[in-house]
Design brief:
It contains no helices and 22 strands. It is mostly beta strands and 345 residues long. Strands 2, 4, 5, 6, 7, 8, 9, 10 and 11 form a nine-stranded mixed sheet that branches. It has a seven-stranded antiparallel sheet with strand order 16-15-14-13-12-22-21, with no helix packed on it. Strands 17-18-19-20 form a four-stranded antiparallel sheet, with no helix packed on it.
């Protein structure tokens, strides 16, 4: 793998602050739709390589496209070996009977130039119930290898840890793909939102007859909210913030909107579209990466948190557009876990 010299290596420690309700069995058959697809909410990695030219080049999202040219990569030798390397959370229960991995760069000229998985551990969870756990040794061959095969299983998350690797001239561990199968057929993978347990964050947008933003309303869960009214004069934009809490002494004023980029925010674009953003907090160099996905008409469809070093692991943002392609609503989920019952057949 031709790793650019400008690669910056970050050790990411993902914090999973889930507020799960009690997972109890239910005698009723759940309404699980086997539409022969897998929907992922968050492909979280403890660490990954990051190219400043392309924040998504070594993203965990690349594990699910069944394309050997796109990879997930990590500096295995600087990796904190405690805990799990990958934790894949599903936005709705995943149903499959086979799970496989393509460990390594699936190119004959690159396969042995990068480290490949040798020993690994895997867990498959259904809510708080661990239904499958196994340690495996993969062959040092460029072939797809099985991690799980058997009866149909229902999963809300899977965990994978790499315990050892086949050495190479590079220090980078590469994984090309994770594939799910049902009845011998590979299942397509997409990304979808979860449903919130602990808190919501709503933002609504309105526009004037010229298509300019005229009002933005924000409701922060149960913590109150506010409105922002916009006006445009002499080529400048002004905003007036009004709290929804009663305060007779507060007189909101219009102030000019500055277009300064948020400190600590980096963007990666493909053409005119932002396809990823990275935000770094000042304390402890904590950061997260968001990756964007667009619909058939070019509208922003959803955002997936990839990995981070903070307690924001379960944030999810949903975007709603009008017929003119304008953003009219944004819904943020503080905790996207939807599994408060065990799913069984």
């Amino acid at each position: 793998m031709n790793i650019k010299k400008i690669l910056t290596k970050f050790g990411l420690l993902c914090a999973f602050g889930l507020l799960l309700a009690s997972c109890e069995k239910t005698p009723e058959k759940p309404a699980i739709s086997e539409t022969e697809s897998i929907k992922i909410y968050a492909p979280i990695a403890k660490s990954m390589l990051i190219s400043k030219d392309d924040l998504t080049e070594y993203s965990t999202v690349n594990l699910f496209d069944d394309a050997p040219a796109t990879i997930y990569a990590v500096d295995y030798h600087t990796l904190d070996k405690k805990g799990w390397l990958l934790e894949i959370r599903f936005s709705e229960p995943a149903v499959f009977d086979t799970l496989s991995v393509k460990g390594g760069y699936f190119d004959k000229n690159r396969f042995k130039k990068n480290e490949r998985i040798k020993d690994l551990s895997i867990e498959i969870w259904n809510c708080r119930n661990k239904d499958y756990e196994k340690s495996l040794v993969l062959k040092n061959k460029m072939e797809e290898q099985t991690l799980y095969s058997g009866e149909k299983i229902i999963a809300t998350k899977i965990r994978i840890n790499v315990d050892s690797v086949y050495p190479s001239e590079s220090v980078y561990l590469v994984i090309s793909d994770l594939n799910f199968y049902l009845g011998g057929k590979r299942l397509p993978v997409g990304f979808g939102e979860g449903k919130c347990i602990s808190g919501e964050d709503f933002t609504w947008y309105k526009y004037d007859e010229l298509g300019r933003l005229s009002e933005k309303m924000h409701q922060a869960g149960h913590a109150g909210g506010h409105s922002e009214n916009y006006k445009y004069e002499d080529g400048k934009t002004f905003v007036q913030a009004i709290s929804w809490e009663e305060d007779d002494d507060f007189e909101p004023e219009f102030v000019e909107v500055k277009t300064e980029q948020k400190k600590g925010m980096e963007f990666f674009k493909s053409g005119e579209k932002i396809v990823a953003e990275k935000y770094t907090e000042s304390y402890d160099n904590s950061f997260y990466i968001n990756q964007y996905f667009y619909g058939n008409k070019g509208e922003l469809g959803c955002l997936v948190r990839i990995c981070e070093n903070s307690n924001w692991a379960n944030d999810f943002t949903e975007f709603v557009y009008n017929e003119n392609g304008q953003l009219i609503e944004k819904i943020g989920y503080e905790d996207a876990t939807i599994y408060n019952k065990r799913y069984t057949e």
